[in-house]
Task: structure prediction
Amino acid sequence: MNRIRGQTAIVTGATAGIGEACARALAAMGVRVVLTGRRSDRLEALARELAAAGNGSARGGGDVEPLTAAFDVRDRAAVDDFAARLESGGAAPDILVNNAGLARGLDTVQGGKHDDWDEMIDTNLKGLLNMTRAILPGMVARDSGHVVNLGSIAGRMIYPKGAVYCATKYAVRAITEGANVDLLGTRVRMSSVDPGMVETEFSLVRFRGDDARARTVYEGVDPLTAEDVADAVCYVLNTPSHVNIQQMLVMPTMQRSPYVLDRRPADTAKE
Ligand code: NDP
Ligand code: 8X3
Result:
């Protein structure tokens, strides 16, 4: 059963990886997607593709093209302006997928770089809060809505040289738990989908374009794909309104924890 057809969903970080896959999966379910991220060329290309495929139908029937908005989730004024324009334009969101995020570097706490820390904390934590603060009041006023945050296994277990990235994801878990308490008495739900290793542009961004180093992260393992995570997000969103999946941990079969990974020679990793 499709319970979300005709709804409107904002997806942050829809220009790549998990966010892009979520946008595609939601549009395929007849959800009108609002694609956001900083790279406007990618947003426009995805919107054209989804519109051409006839995805993104509005409440009540006819096809409605995806909307796009290019902004940085760290820019609170831009986020507030986006939310206000969406509401006044008659596209009040039913769903917010807080996906935009990144890691920068792998460093010890004693050797870490302040700029990397700022970027991770400002994006993964404060950016998610900016979006949530802008969108959640409308959901509460309408007594309806669902926010899905992209957490991580890194929000449950620390790994070496990952303390600050992990801290941002522990914080996402705290916000999901805290908001759920604060939302008691409303029909608004908040969930976090927490993946293990997913092959996307994540490691390329973490290692600032060092493709060879990024590829070694996924060598010899069979990681999750962005589509696997999008499936989980859609499952969570498509539950009946009295069901609230507050947390969902999704791991590749070959990764049982950040430390316990069945890495094999590349040609034997996949069945
Ligand atoms: P990608 O690098 O493939 O995609 C990240 C997305 O976030 C891009 O669309 C990027 O868009 C957007 N983004 C980054 N910074 C900003 C910003 N300041 N403002 C707006 N958008 C921004 O990575 P993933 O798809 O893998 O990551 C998505 C989420 O999933 C992240 O929160 C990540 O922490 C989480 N995650 C990833 C895992 C993995 O192994 N890949 C595992 C667990 C969780 P643009 O650059 O155009 O702005
Ligand atoms: C991203 C996945 O590998 O850093 O959240 O734990 S990892």
Notes: The two ends are 32 Å apart (CA to CA).
